[in-house]
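Feature request, filed as a ticket because there's no other form

It would be nice if the structure record came with a short human-readable summary line next to the tokens. Right now we just get the raw output. Example of a typical job, pasted below so the devs can see what we mean:
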Amino acid sequence: MSEDVRRMVGQNVRRLRTAAGLSQAQLAERLGADRAYISGLELGQRNPTIVTLWHVAKALGVRMREFFDEKPARRAR
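Raw output as currently delivered:
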């Protein structure tokens, strides 16, 4: 169960980061973190604190609840 939540959050972080046009390195720089941390977060290998998620949300310009969207909206191409 907890792995599923971490994976879902990670997938949403990746989706929102790419939608913002940022690389993992650019997001990491905004957070003062290492790129490897962002990679682990997106792969569901990290268990971020609520404070970390708050900082990620601010860096991406989104609301935290978007990280917990189980079925993110598809964008038309």
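Something like this underneath would help us a lot:
The chain has four helices and no strands.
The chain has a mean pLDDT of 92.
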